[in-house]
Amino acid sequence: MTDVLDKRVRLAELPTPIQPMERLGAHLGLASGTLWVKRDDLTGLAGGGNKTRKLEYLCHEALEQGADTLVTGAGIQSNHCRQTAAAAAKLGLKCSLVLAGARPDVATGNVLLDRILGADITWEEGDLFGGEVDAAIERRAAELREQGANTYSIPVGGSNPVGALGYVRAAREIQEQLPDADMVVFGTGSCGTHAGLAAGYGDHSKVLGIRIGEREDMEGVITERAAETAVLAGLDKPVGDCQVEHGYLGEGYGQINDATIEAIELAGRLEGLICDPVYSGKALSGLIGCFRSGRLAKDTKTVFIHTGGLPGLLSDRFTNVWPVR
Fold first, then answer.
1. Is the pLDDT of residue 266 over 70?
2. Which of 45, 73, 211, 325 is most buried, by the most CB atoms less than 10 A from its CB?
3. What is the Cα–Cα distance from 22 to 291, expressed in whole angstroms?
4. Which domain holds residue 63?
5. Rounded to an integer, what distance in angstroms lies between the CA atom of residue 76 and that of residue 165?
């Protein structure tokens, strides 16, 4: 482990477990021991999720810089924002969130948790992955500095090379827990998780991102960020070509579709595993589709990274998807 990877604050319960998904694997026609899940929904901070790994490194840098306020943003039901608010609370910092969208009448899901965790929220229209939210984060940080705060800005998803170090560490965990795994599959949105895994493995062919977001030129962004992250971690730049599966986004970010509903229900009814419609459920629909289509061979020993997201499932946005019967 490099020295850089040790420069973090401890926010997550690590290592998260890897568990077999035997019943879902059998449903897909896979041999026993082929399909596994990395439970990054169990990182522990305020409901868990993958962003806690990134925040360990981002918050370490914030504290080193003497920050007293974390400023970040994303969509209304952002798991990243909820975990950032929790990290700030745990470390005795203030947190200011910029949420893209109209202020809801009732706080549900992650917004409710943001309030409980004490975050200050600014509501702003914008394109989640188009840079407008990142610009709004910087505007809010500037406002707070004028009021005397010492701010530390975190981009959407915590997805910069510092944050991606969290998934360099995760790649090491997976290699230790399941060294013969052929492929790691997960949802790709703001690209930081993907970049960190590619840097950690040193090989783009070992990681497959299922596109769940609207960011353009994902392959280019991931390739560049993975190289930057590897350099920061003291590693060689990853070899090979970045792999992103684009066929399961549906009508767009956060838009639920039949494939996502099927994946969520299969995970729940076969594995007792709860996925959400925006991130883990859509990513799982892509993994299932890749096995069915042959993009992933039936004998590919695969680890699906469950990145969390349960609070978003419980928001008013999805209450009518599964009506009471």
1. yes
2. 73
3. 15
4. 51-158
5. 26
Query: Based on the domain organization, do 9 and 72 belong to the same domain?
Result: no
The torsion of the CA quartet 186, 250, 276, 46, rounded to 10 degrees, works out to: 70
Give the angle 50-183-35 at the CA atoms, nearest 5°: 85
Instruction: Give a yes or no: residue 238 inside a domain.
Output: yes
Are 307 and 187 within 8 A, CB to CB?
A: yes
- SS3 category, 229: helix
pLDDT in tens, 102-144: 899 999 999 999 999 999 999 987 665 567 889 999 999 999 9
Q: Residue 2's pLDDT is what? A: 53
Asked if 68 and 189 sit in the same domain, the reply is no
Return the residue matching tokens 């005397």: 148
Angle between helix 51-64 and 161-177 (nearest 10):
130
pLDDT level of residue 25 (50, 70, 90 thresholds): very high
- Active-site hit among 32, 78, 205, 293: 78
CB atoms within 10 A of CB 70: 25
CATH of the domain at 130: 3.40.50.1100
On whether both 70 and 148 belong to a single domain, the answer is yes
pLDDT digits (tens, 9 = 90+) for 213-235: 888 899 999 999 999 999 999 99
The confidence band for 101, taking pLDDT boundaries of 50, 70 and 90, is confident
User: Do 175 and 308 sit in the same domain of this protein?
Assistant: yes
User: Would you place residue 78 in the very low, low, confident or very high pLDDT band (cuts 50, 70, 90)?
Assistant: very high
And the tokens for 27?
Answer: 């449903």
* Helices of type H across 147-276: 161-177, 192-201, 218-233, 258-271
315 is catalytic: no
Identify which of 237, 156, 234, 135 has the alpha carbon closest to the alpha carbon of residue 195.
237
Pair 117, 186 in one domain: no
